[in-house]
Design a protein that fits this description.
single chain, 219 residues, 4-stranded mixed beta sheet, alpha+beta, 12% strand
Length: 219
C-alpha cells in the first residue's frame, strides 16, 4: 500500500504542451493560400499617452522618453517584419508543394532550404530559422514547416521523386499485400522499379523502419 501506482510520474512534467499553428492554409479560387494565425501575433502597440506627448512637441528629441519611443516603434516594426517573413516563406512552400495539398503524400516534391531561400530572396540560414518549430494548419493536418522539405530519389525518367512520396507508395503497396504472401524489401524494390522509381533495397528497408512496418523475408 505504501508504493505509488505511478512510479514514473516524478520524472516527467505533468503540463501538456499544445502546438498552435503559425500559418493557416486555405483554398481561394482554386489556389492554396497561406494566412497568419491571428492568435500567434503578439498584441503590442505604442502607448498613446507618450506618443501624444511627442506629437505635441512637449518632449525634446534627445530625452529618455523619445529614445524609448523609438525603441518601442522599432520593436513593433521588427515583429511585423518577422511575421511577414514567415508568411512569405510559408507561401513559397505552399506554392512548391501545391500538388501535395491536392492529391496527398504521393504528390510531395523534393524541396531544400536553398530553393525556398532563392524564391523569397533570403539567406538560407534565415529560412532555416524561420522554419524551425513553426507549424502549418492545413486541410490534411497540422504539420511542421520542416515536413515539406526532403531529399529525393531518381526515377527511371530521370526526374526526382521525394522521399515522402516513396514512403507513401511503400505504405500503399504494403497495405494492399496479401495476408499469406507479405512483401519483402526486395519485392518492394522491384515493385517500385516497375513504377519507374529506382531505389536500393537498403533504402526501402530504411523507409520501412521509419514507417514502423515490419520487414519480412518472404518474396
Amino acid at each position: 500500500r505504501s508504493l505509488t501506482p505511478r512510479p514514473g510520474a516524478g520524472f516527467g512534467a505533468d503540463e501538456t504542451q499544445f502546438v498552435v499553428a503559425d500559418i493557416i492554409v486555405h483554398q481561394v479560387q482554386g489556389k492554396w493560400v497561406a494566412g497568419i494565425n491571428p492568435e500567434v501575433i503578439p498584441k503590442i502597440q505604442v502607448n498613446r499617452f507618450y506618443a501624444g506627448i511627442l506629437r505635441g512637441g512637449r518632449d525634446g528629441g534627445g530625452t529618455p522618453v523619445s529614445q524609448q519611443m523609438r525603441e518601442a516603434r522599432w520593436l513593433v516594426r521588427n515583429i511585423e517584419q518577422r511575421f511577414q517573413t514567415i508568411l512569405r516563406v510559408a507561401q513559397a512552400i505552399i506554392d512548391h508543394q501545391s500538388r501535395y495539398f491536392d492529391y496527398g503524400a504521393m504528390a510531395m516534391r523534393p524541396l531544400t532550404l536553398g530553393e525556398i531561400a532563392a524564391k523569397v530572396d533570403l539567406h538560407e540560414s534565415t529560412v532555416s530559422r524561420v522554419t524551425s518549430r513553426k507549424y502549418m494548419a492545413t486541410p490534411r493536418g497540422l504539420f511542421e514547416f520542416k515536413h515539406f522539405f526532403g531529399s529525393h530519389v531518381e526515377t527511371a525518367a530521370g526526374n526526382p521523386c521525394s522521399a515522402t512520396a516513396v514512403r507513401a507508395l511503400i505504405t500503399e503497396l504494403v497495405s494492399a499485400e496479401e495476408g499469406e504472401r507479405p512483401l519483402s524489401d526486395i519485392k518492394l524494390t522491384r515493385l517500385l522499379e516497375q513504377r519507374g522509381i529506382k531505389v536500393a533495397r537498403r533504402t526501402v528497408s530504411k523507409y520501412r523502419d521509419a514507417l514502423q512496418i515490419l520487414s519480412l523475408i518472404h518474396i
